Amino acid sequence: MKYSYLFGPVPSRRLGMSLGVDLVPRKVCTLDCVYCEVGATTTLTNERKEYIPVSKIIEELTHFFKTNATAIDHITISGSGEPTLNSGIGDIVRFIKHNIKDIPLAVLTNGTLLYDKNVRDALLAADVVLPSLDAATATVFNRINRHHRSITVDQCIEGLVSFRKEFRGKIWLEIFILPGFNDTDAELDEIRQAVLRIQPDSVQLNTLDRPGTVAGLRGAAQMELERIAQLLDLENMEIIAAAPQTGSVPSCRPDAESVVIEMIARRPCTLDDLVTTLGMSAAAVKKIIDGLETADRIESVQQERGLFYQLKDK
C-alpha cells in the first residue's frame, strides 16, 4: 500500500523514531512563519474542516501496523501544515489511543487554535503535545509568524494557559529563536512571563538549521542560545540538539528513491539526514541524489549546517 498521509518513521530531534501522520494538505496553516522548513503557506486560514477524511487516515494506520514491525518511539500527528485545522483530529487521536496502546502519541501544533475548547478537548487523550511560542508581543508575532488576521498573540497565550489547566499529559513548549527578530531582552522577558503562566513540562529552545521562507535568515549560534537560556531562567529548559544518529534505520518503503523524494518534498535535507533515515551508506544515498540532480528534480542549497537538497521549482 502506498501511503499518502503517513510518513516515516524518521528520526526526530525530540521524539526519537517518529511515524508522522498528516492531517492537512501541504501548507494549509494558520501561520506563514518566516523560518518554516516546509515552505511558504499557500492557504492561510483559520477554517476547521475535514481536509483529509478521517476514514482514509485510519485505513492507512490500520494497514501500517498490520504489515510493519519497525521500532517506533512516537506516533506524531504533525504534517505539512497545522493539524488542528482538521476537524476530525479528535477522532484520529481517539482511534490511535484505543487501537495502538503501546506507542505514545504526540501532537505537533503551533498552538494558535488552542483558544477553541473543541480543539483542546480533541487533544486531551494525547500523551505529549508540542506547541510553539516564538513571540509574546503583537509586533514580533506578526513579523515572525505572519498570522491569519483572526489570530492574536494574546489569544494564543491564553489558549496555552487554558490547555495546561485541562491537559494531563506532557507539554513540551518550543521557542524558536531567530536573531534579529525575537532575541531582544525586552521580547525575551515578555516570552518568559508568558511561559511562567503556561507552565509547560519542558521548554525547548530551537533555531534555524534548514532554509526558511525568507532570504537572509540565520540560526542562533550555540553561545547565543546559551545566553538566551540564562536570560530566560526557566525550569526544565533545554537547547535542542541534532536528531539522534541511529546506526541502521530501515525504511518503511522498499524504493529508496521514492523515500528520498518524499523527505525532500516535505523539508530540505542534508545527505546525513537521508542516510540516517534510509539506513544506507552515504555513497549509496549520494548516488540517488546525483541521479535526481541530473534529472533536474532536486537542487542543492548551501546553509550553515551544510549542503541541503530540496525539490527544484518547475
Description:
With 314 residues, the protein is α/β, with parallel strands linked by helices. The chain folds into two domains: 6-244, TIM Barrel (Alpha-Beta Barrel); 245-314, Orthogonal Bundle (Arc Repressor Mutant, subunit A). The chain has ten helices and 13 strands. It has helices spanning 54-67, 89-99, 117-123, 138-145, 153-166, 185-198, 222-232, 256-266, 271-278, 282-294; strands spanning 6-12, 16-22, 28-29, 43-44, 74-78, 105-108, 128-130, 170-177, 202-207, 237-239, 269-270, 298-303, 306-311. Helix 9 (271-278) crosses helix 10. The longest helix has 14 residues, at 54-67. The relative contact order is 0.12.
What can be said about this structure in brief?
By secondary structure, this protein is an alpha/beta fold.
Instruction: Estimate the global geometry from the Cα principal axes.
Output: globular
How many structural domains are formed by the residues?
A: 2
On the 0 to 100 scale, the average pLDDT is 86
Supply the CATH architecture of the largest domain.
Answer: Alpha-Beta Barrel
Could you state the order of secondary-structure elements as H and E? EEEEHEHEHEHHEHEHEHEHHEE
> Alpha-carbon distance between the termini?
28 Å
